[in-house]
Amino acid sequence: MNNSSIESSKNILSASTVKPKEENLLQIFFIACVATIGGFLFGFDSGVINGTVDGLKLAFSSDSMGTGFNVASMLLGCALGAFIAGRSADKYGRKSILMMTALFFVISAWGSGIASSSLEFVTYRLIGGLAVGAASVLAPAYISEIAPPRLRGMLTSIQQVAIILGLFSSFLSNYFLVKISGGSTSELWLGFHTWRWMFWIELIPAILFLVTLFFIPESPRYLAIKNKKDKGIDVLTRLFGAKAAITMWSDIRDSIGNDHTPKISDIFKTNTHKLKPIIWIGIGLAVLQQLAGINVVFYYGAILWQAVGFSESDALLINIISGGVSIFACFITLSLIDKVGRKPFLLVGSVGMSFSLLGLVTAFANGTLDSQGQLQLGDWGFTALLQANLYVFFFNLSWGPVMWVMLGEMFPNKIRGSGLAVAGLAQWLANFIITMTFPLLLASAGLAITYSFYTLFALISILFVLWFVIETKGKKLEQM
Questions:
Q1: 266-480 has which CATH code?
Q2: pLDDT tens digits for 408-461?
Q3: Is the pTM of this model over 0.90?
Q4: Do domains 1-261 and 266-480 have the same CATH topology?
Q5: Fewer Cβ atoms within 10 A, N terminus or C terminus of the chain?
Q6: Residue 255 reports pLDDT greater than 70
Q7: Is the dihedral of CA 96, 98, 102, 108 positive or negative?
Q8: CATH number, domain 1-261, options 1.10.260.40, 1.20.1250.20, 3.40.228.10, 3.40.640.10
Q9: Alpha helices, DSSP H only, in 64-186?
Q10: Which of 399, 361, 383, 207 is nearest to 285 (CA)?
Q11: Could you tell me the CA-to-CA distances from 35 to 8, 92, 218, 370 in Å, in that order?
């Protein structure tokens, strides 16, 4: 599904006169909740790896490089899944691709837990990555195509909350499984190690996602593209009432011939191979979000806290606290972003992340090594814990949700699809690089130097926001 098509759908629904009393809000909210299970699985699948790293090392006898690839391999699938999902949804339907996505989540969850070798594990994680990448694109797009204009912002924002809830739930699940068994490498049920059950818990929401998708309709936008008039009007009638359905169907069909089909060449200046400045800004936003190191906290949080002297159980509990902090910060942003603006949130977040990361570096630098070479923070332990959660708070207050909002708004209509494709690909690749390199940096340079790199990029993000980011609050997309 190209992003111009998605945006056109939003504008079409906005232009149509839909009386609130005729809206089937129960049906609309149900559909939105089903779609956001994809976002929940996005978060859960990204975070569950956090508590399994020790188990992966033991099961597959992997070194730092191997462990990094086992953890980061999903991200390669994410990049591919996000890139191809839109086109596939235009060809086969939004609902069909969402169902395929749910099936991939099921296969990945089962296979990751049953894997007997690194190659087998990576294969299943790549399948999971395809699902995560597709869900990150299709779930909010599908919601935008069925939501009434007055509720679209709230309903599509649920996706971001669902991602954080998925991360939080994976941390919570990992913590309680370890509490029951005594450790991620200990046997739990049926003779299988705990880390395998961490993956299998994901089968519950994945199967729920697959089953509930049978009870939602196909997007009226896709039905209009295929000119399935009877089915399209039926869906619109169920959602918005019979009177609005005819007008809306006519508007959607009339717009299809006028849609701009995005081309990758649109991102270049005319008659040159140079990227347009707005594309570079989009890439900068996407890459800096990752280079500040947030996914090191999400994917390696348990290892990080064990590396500074916390027990595995305490480390997983810290992850739960960080998840709660993330949810709290996200709700603040959702409630204020349209009042305060995008750029102020990004700037506050960059400053907050810079100072909190600097506090982490200071704490790690003042630690001592015990006889086994393990870093001990002593009195600096509380400071490290506080600064880490401040960092998580400021990220989820700003660069976490706001980066995606900006990317959806900042590109002109003509290049929105191509711009998002390039920026999204850059985001996932940067995510992969950071995730892949953390174990190597941890083993060779230590936590203080490793986090100094992330601090540097957080400081760079302050200058980037001040010099290059333009406020988009209150502007129509056609004004971009």
A1: 1.20.1250.20
A2: 667 664 565 567 667 777 888 888 788 778 777 877 877 788 889 999 999 999
A3: no
A4: yes
A5: C
A6: no
A7: positive
A8: 1.20.1250.20
A9: 64-92, 94-114, 118-146, 149-181
A10: 399
A11: 20, 17, 12, 49
